Amino acid sequence: MNVSELPKHFDTQAAESSWQARWRELGVYRYAEAAPGQERFAIDTPPPTVSGSLHVGHVFSYTQTDLIARFERMRGKRVFYPMGWDDNGLPTERRVQNYFHVRCNPGLKYESGLQLPDPADPNFDPKSPPQEISRRNFIELCLRLTEEDEKSFKALWGRLGLSVDWTQEYSTIDPRCRRAAQRSFLDLWRKGHIYSVEAPTMWDVDFQTAVAQAEVEDRKIGGHFHHLRFAVEGSPIGSKIDIFTIATTRPELLPACVGVTAHPDDARFRHLFGKRALTPLFGVPVPIFPSDLADPEKGTGILMVCTFGDATDVRWWREQNLANRQILGRNGRLLAVEFGQPNWPSVDPQRANLLYSELSGKNVKQARRLIVEQLRAPDEAVLRGQAPLEREPAPIEHPVKFFEKGDQPLEFITTKQFFVRLLDKKPMLLEAGDRIQWHPEFMRHRYRVWTENLAFDWAISRQRYFGVPFPVWYPISAAGEADYANPIVAEEESLPLDPADAAPPGFNEGQRGKPNGFVAEADVFDTWFTSSLTPMIASGWGEQPDRFRTLFPMDLRPQSHEIIRTWAFYTIVKACLHEDRIPWKNVAISGWILDPDRKKMSKSRGNVITPMHLLDEYGSDAVRYWAAGAGLGADTAFDVNVLKVGKRLVTKLFNASKFVLGKEGVPGPIVYPMDRVFLLRLRDLVRNATRHLENYEHQQALAETERFFWTAFTDSYIEMSRARTQGTQGAEAQGSALTTLRIALSVFLRLFAPFLPYITDEVWSWTCAEETGCASIHASAWPSEADFPELPADGNEGIFDIALEALYAINRSRTAAGVSTAREIKTATLAAKPDAFPLLQAACEDIRLAVRAGELLAVEEPQLDGAGIEVRQIEFVSA
RNA sequence: GGGCGGUUAGCUCAGUUGGUUAGAGCACUUCCCUUACAAGGAAGGGGUCCGGGGUUCGAGUCCCUGACCGCCCA
Questions:
Q1: Strand B closer than 7 A to residue A416 Cβ
Q2: What is the ipTM for the molecules in this complex?
Q3: Contact A752, A764 (CB under 8 A)
Q4: What is the pLDDT of residue A142?
Q5: Any idea which nucleotide's C1' is nearest the CA of A659?
Q6: Confidence (pTM)
Q7: Which nucleotides of strand B lie within 7 A of protein CB?
Q8: How far is CA A595 from each of CA A94, A598, A640, A643, A749, rounded to the nearest angstrom?
Q9: CA–CA dist A547, A78 (Å, integer)
Q10: Which residues in range 790-819 of chain A are in contact with strand B, contact meaning CB within 7 A of any of its atoms?
Q11: For chain A, which ranges sit under pLDDT 50?
Q12: Using omega within 30 degrees of 0 as the cis cutoff, is the peptide bond preceding A41 cis?
């Protein structure tokens, strides 16, 4: 090809679209089953949540994974690099409900070809009650909506140049994933790791679903300490009544009070243990017991136990065998209860019911406001006329548990839920974590600490719709009662299924909901129950045994650090419980992108930077350069300047390549000392860059390559060899220089290829593709010793650094004299210390040619300050 | 309250097992259109490596301690 016909500038956008098409056409990123003896490298790509938009943080972390994929591919491994979409779950549900104005009713049957009113229709009434549809219809709508998102995500990934094999695509709600999740359930059920129980569970009252420990976060919110007087039961009439004061932030749970406790060593309350207290207003007798868990410093030191205010209440309720008086319903409103009935004792049921009737049906906030008013009134029955509220509520700020996606504090509500038993498996899970390499290493602690502190088994059932259903039914007795203790689980061959549409083995559809028939479980799995299977889904677990054997365990799991406790943890759980193996050998944790003020990017903060305009303005390679500049685990503030630097590097590569390939002449053997020394240094660079990439330190590889390319190659070696390439120093010196330049260019292109896939393939296509027979640089071999001819060492390797110093020294002289680099030098003299002098002499001719001097002398100066080279005399050709 | 990470130039960040005078880019100043490159090049100024102690011949680097920032967990 005629390099002189190449465009003046590199058109990034045109190159990006043409190379994407070319890569597809060549199948460069297609995973091929490894030949015998050939290594494979399997990546458990994080499936992005599709019901949102991508920001530069995603671009950042996905690029870091792609670097590794490209590096390993060039090293000759068969790279398995799939892409999944995480589309099930709450965010999508919410969008579908609003967009189509529907609600899911899992009790309804599927209606094929369901017609929905068009929200754009003028007759459409948005205030009308939402249409109820079956779960399968609802899922179809979710799929319709997520399909669009997936298209735009895919376009962005393509643009960014992710070397994903797009034939290996999945989404977490597709039949394959649903089948895998249900198969996982069956396997764990058979192995006895899953149990279902009716117990107090963390519950979000808005979403009306159970949540797992991993989805819970503490938030500091304002509240009030309410000081309430309780009476001790049995104070003799006429004597001074024995009263104590508890402090609580949740007075509305007073009707659910089932006990009172204080620290066993607390002298103030020791005399009360074993007696019973009477709750104010409701007059409920409850036991007073000692507990180490009560903090004498907190509040008044004595507190009420309710069903259920928090996790400690649950514990006390269990350990002390307390009554269960659940007053909060699943919707977060107070249930109707009747005092005086069994389990609801009261010394004055009539009054208790009167007071409670005001609270019944109210939500927590409303009930709290009302009960505080009730507590201000004198309480004759229990407190002989004193008001239960001892003093005005005192504002405090305290940590409260929230569902990470929710807006209301979590409640503990007694419901039937499925759990995976984990608490007995901590040692095994810790040991598994130790067998995995974590990058950076300190991220191992996050996993370890989470696993050690795990307090609950994994609650896997969710009372939601856009998810994978439990493949479970319950028999109905002749009397019409569902038998939840004896679930019927599906057979593996029938997966995936929705128990609302399919009948269990041995039953027919006509028996649904009838005596001696069956009823379907309505719950779906926690989304992590499916996502925790990604390495198994992608590698064909349970479906393609041969493929599974070669791909599992995978080599690499890339992910971010805030989901170590969920995604990484649950994936390790699943791999251990199903296969008794770790899911991958390496975990690479990418950092977060912070906004320029070092705040985490989030929609709610409104500081999200989207990537498309950056790709348009700077080009994919520049964006990737920015992403590759940060090491794993390092949070980085977004800085548009780094993109500019990347763009400059791309331009420099483009121009330097044009220079090298534009030289005419016949390449010959490397006989010239400076060429040999330069190649030796380049060979060191290859070794270092390779080592850094092997160690998951891509930023080091890039930084060293870039630095050497800029200072040693374009700024110096090219200048030193320029004259020789034109043949002025004879054919042998020219041939040696041309060969060196060609080797260097080919090596540089390949060292940069994982980072800058577009510009490197563009340049590669000019001549290297034909010369090597590799149509794409990304299918070529990573540079190695094999790229270099025999380069015997002769002890003169120092001439390169000396030459560099001499060039800098002369540049300084030029600048000091205010002389253009275009002006030639008539004569100059360089001074070196005796130990450096022979090297300077040896490099003198190369320096002279580089700076275009008529005459260049080297002198020895034992008394020279410092170690460098100094210009002793310089005379420029007159302008 | 516990754990982990961080604090290096105005900004964004490197700095590997301790080892010359602590680096890069951006920004700033000055100069230069030079046959690969003005989408460029050359040069320059700019540092109490968060504070305090310690180990060492020698500490940005190791140890102790304090402050601040971030994250995770209670």
A1: no
A2: 0.93
A3: no
A4: 86
A5: B36
A6: 0.88
A7: 2-5, 11-16, 20-21, 24-27, 30-37, 39-44, 69-74
A8: 28, 5, 11, 15, 32
A9: 13
A10: 808, 811-812, 814-816, 818
A11: none
A12: no
